Each structure stands twice: as C-alpha cells, then as structure tokens.
C-alpha cells in the first residue's frame, strides 16, 4: 500500500454513451479488467439535483458496473459553489470549478481508501464521452499527481452524435464549422456571430428564452430530450413552429423517465432561406 493509502495503479476514464446500449466492446473489455468503479452520488449533496430529477446517470453507471461484475464505490459528490452571477467565465467561476475538482479528487481517493483499498485498476464512467462538458479527464490528471497512477481514456458516444443520428443530419453545412456551446452562453455567442450551434447544458428556461427572441423565429431547431431512454423526444422545424411543442415534449420526457436532459442544434437560414 502506498502513501496515499490505496493500491491504485491504473485509472480508466470510460465513455458509456447515453446508456448500456452504447457501451462499446472496447469499453466493456476494459471495464471487466477493473477491480472497482467509482460512481459519484449527487443526490445527497448537489443542490442542482437534490429534490429535483432522479439521478439517472448514477443509476445507469451502477447498472453498467453490475452487468460487468465490477463492484461500485459510491462517492458523495461534493457541492459546487454556485453562488454569484450565472456567468460561465471569469476568475471566480474558474476558482469555484478548480476547488470543486480538488474536492472531487479527495472524495475519490477517500472512497477507494475506505471501500476498495486493494483495487489496482479503477474505472470512472463518463456520461457520453469525456471530451465534452465533463471534468473526469481533469480529475484523472490530479489523481495522477497525487498517486503516480497511470491513466487512460476510452471514447464513448456523445450526446451530439446521438442527436445528429436521431435527426438524420450533419451537424454543420458542407465545409462549414459548428460551434458547441452551453445554454448560458448561447445568446452571447449568437451576438458574436455564431450561426450554427450545438447547445448543451440547457436550463429549465432555455426553451422559453428561445421563444422570447423573435429574431430567431426562422432559425431551424433540431431538439431532443432524454436521448437513449424510454422517454426520448425529438422535434425539428423553424423555432416559431416547434418551440411550443418542444416545451410540451420536454415535460413528457420528464414524466416518462422521472428526469429530463435536453439539447439542440440551432442554425440560421442562409441568404436563400435554406437551413440545410
Ligand atoms: C454534462 S454534459 C455531458 C455531455 C457528455 N459528456 C457528452 O458526451 O455528450 C450534459 C449535457 O449533455 C446533454 N445530454 C446529455 N445526455 C443527454 C440525453 N440523453 N439526451 C439529451 N441531451 C443530453 C444535455 O444538454 C446535458 O445538459
């Protein structure tokens, strides 16, 4: 046993897509080699989840671990400091995120010390893929610094990939870019000239915010909620034509699954009014 009190030799960050049906053979094989899977439990600690939607992601991670016969080390997710303005940039915000990553790292190591001190190979499961709006790669870097462990990443199917597949679209026009952003930054990004955006980390009021922008009425929306789950919903069309239905469908997804996560592709028409 080392100075950090665990036998950790290798950490694996494994992308699991939107659920067990997306777990690749590569991820499956890697998972079977692991002695433990660390799963964060947001339910008790995170104000963003407590009392709201069921933590579906935790349930899915536990199910995948069980299907691969790997024991779960459940770790309470430390609360993140969400005080202050709803900005997603700036020194204070970044400081809060860095502190949160530090606290999460401590919780992982404490969980392993308490429940799986002999585990040499440990997995953490990334929802979708760890390359988008996910902190696991950053946590792995910190854990390496503290323990000297080796770590690697295996990709999963990301939510934008599933969205594109469901709507049978390419995320950008021929030879053009796509801008991936958050709902908090959406209108700043549009003001800065973005015309083709994948929007994630939506908020309960994001569809209302869209509806309140008449300048976006003719933009095309490809919207989906709960991709990969029983309550999955998808709608596409001009914003003004589909936004009301999307709001209803969002509630249907929540009622069916007990939680809701949604995202969309939003594109301005070209000079001929075309969106494809
Ligand atoms: C923290 S990010 C994680 C994304 C993930 N790393 C990926 O590869 O897509 C979560 C956001 O992704 C989108 N998302 C994740 N899962 C989704 C799903 N099943 N259906 C619709 N949107 C989803 C939502 O916008 C959600 O707020």
Q: Topology of this protein?
A:
Blueprint: E1 10-15, H1 25-32, E2 36-41, H2 56-67, E3 72-76, H3 91-115, E4 121-126, H4 136-147, E5 150-154, H5 159-167, E6 179-182, H6 186-191, E7 196-200, H7 206-211, E8 220-225, E9 233-238, H8 239-257, E10 262-267
Parallel strand pairs: 1-4, 1-5, 2-3, 2-4, 6-7
Antiparallel strand pairs: 7-10, 8-9, 8-10
Helix pairs in contact: 3-4
The protein binds S-adenosylmethionine.
Which short descriptors sum up this protein?
276 residues, alpha/beta, Cobalt-precorrin-4 Transmethylase, domain 1, Methyltransferase, Cobalt-precorrin-4 Transmethylase, Domain 2, 2 domains, five-stranded parallel sheet, five-stranded mixed sheet, 8 helices, 20% strand, binds S-adenosylmethionine
Which sequence of SSEs, written as H and E, runs from N to C? EHEHEHEHEHEHEHEEHE
* CATH class annotation of the largest domain: Alpha Beta
Secondary-structure-based class equals alpha/beta
Name the CATH superfamily assignment of the largest domain: Tetrapyrrole methylase, N-terminal domain
Number of helices: 8
Average pLDDT figure: 92
- What's the CATH topology label of the largest domain? Cobalt-precorrin-4 Transmethylase, domain 1
Q: If you compute it from the alpha carbons, what radius of gyration comes out, rounded to the nearest whole angstrom?
A: 20 Å
Distance between the termini: 58 Å
Percent helix among the residues? 25-40%
Tell me the major beta sheet: 5 strands, parallel
CATH architecture designation of the largest domain: 3-Layer(aba) Sandwich
């Amino acid at each position: 046993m080392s100075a950090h009190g665990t036998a950790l030799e290798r950490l694996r960050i494994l992308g699991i897509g939107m659920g067990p049906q997306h777990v690749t053979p590569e991820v499956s094989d890697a998972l079977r080699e692991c002695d433990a899977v660390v799963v964060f439990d947001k339910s008790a600690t995170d104000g963003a989840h407590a009392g709201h939607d069921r933590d579906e992601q935790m349930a899915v991670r536990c199910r995948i671990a069980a299907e691969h016969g790997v024991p779960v080390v459940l770790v309470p997710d430390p609360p993140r400091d969400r005080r202050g303005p709803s900005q997603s940039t700036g020194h204070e915000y970044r400081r809060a995120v860095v502190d949160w990553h530090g606290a999460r790292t401590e919780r992982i190591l404490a969980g392993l010390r308490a429940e799986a001190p002999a585990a040499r190979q440990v997995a953490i499961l990334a929802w979708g893929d760890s390359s988008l709006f996910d902190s696991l790669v950053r946590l792995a870097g910190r854990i390496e610094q503290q323990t000297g462990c080796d770590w690697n990443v295996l990709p999963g199917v990301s939510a934008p990939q599933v969205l594109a597949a469901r709507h049978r679209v390419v995320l950008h026009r021929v030879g053009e870019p796509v801008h991936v952003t958050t709902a908090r930054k959406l209108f700043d990004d549009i003001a800065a000239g973005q015309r083709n955006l994948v929007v994630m980390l939506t908020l309960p009021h994001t569809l209302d915010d869209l509806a309140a922008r008449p300048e976006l009425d003719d933009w095309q929306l490809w919207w989906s909620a709960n991709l990969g789950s029983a309550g999955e919903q998808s709608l596409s069309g001009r914003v003004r034509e589909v936004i009301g239905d999307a709001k209803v469908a969002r509630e249907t997804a929540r009622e069916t699954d007990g939680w809701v996560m949604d995202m969309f592709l939003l594109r301005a028409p070209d000079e001929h009014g075309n969106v494809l």
